[in-house]
Amino acid sequence: MKVEIYSDVACPWCYVGTERLNRALGAFPGADQVEVVFRPFQLAPEASTTPRPMSEALREKFGDMAAVRAAHERLAALGAAEGIAFDFESAQSVNTFTAHRLLWLAEREGGAATQRRLKTALLRAQFTEGADVGDPSVLVERAVAAGLDRERVTAFLAGDEGAAEVARQIDEARRIGVTAVPTFVFEGTWAVQGAQEASVMLQVLEQVAAELARDDDPRQGAATGTDAATAGRQGHDHAGGDDACADGVCAV
């Protein structure tokens, strides 16, 4: 089974959703047959490559910070339950395109497992460590820790390799209807939006596995589709809404 996660390094709900999927996989008997791949999405493609405090960017964007602080408090509590120590006061706002480009390289040269390690490291850098995820030195260290070669990564970040491919993937995400992240796409067919509880993600994994087994067995007849309460066909049921992070997703 292949799970593609449309996600942005700048999305706190993507961090929560990733950890919840990891917990679900830990309880899923077929986890060793599941390939998890991250696909790029930018919530703020216009963001500067020069970092600034996230609180400053949010204040400029929303004005009244009361709702933002309330959302952060909720996220901090939910994150703690997943082992995430959110530190929104030290978090930086910066363009994430280069980070996505590095994640593209990680999948291409290190495989899905290497990319997953790097993604987790970048989310931790962004939301726990207050690091600048646009800084090449930060990216190199996280990439090497994830298993990539230092010289290769350094040279890669100095050029523009992968930029066109990542831009195409971002365009493709919007073309198929992804307007909020995280969005989890199972086998290119079933889409689940938002940082669902681990129990829900486990249910979806089981349902998709059952669908795939049914499709492989001609005696079983036509597939019936996964539970509409948690999964919809790709390109449908993607919530749009305000340019904000609430209720399990960050939307544009």
TrEMBL record:
Q: What residue spans carry the Low complexity bias annotation?
A: 221-232
Write out the entry's keywords from A to Z: Isomerase
Q: For the region Disordered, what residue ranges are annotated?
A: 213-242
In which domain of life is the source organism classified? Bacteria
Q: Name one Pfam family in it.
A: DSBA
The molecular function terms of the Gene Ontology recorded here are: isomerase activity; oxidoreductase activity
Note the InterPro entries from the entry. Answer: DSBA-like_thioredoxin_dom, Thioredoxin-like_sf
Taxon lineage: Bacteria, Bacillati, Actinomycetota, Actinomycetes, Kitasatosporales
Record flagged with keyword Isomerase: yes
Q: Which residues form the DSBA-like thioredoxin domain?
A: 3-203
**CDD domains according to UniProt:** DsbA_FrnE
Q: What is this protein called?
A: Putative DsbA family dithiol-disulfide isomerase
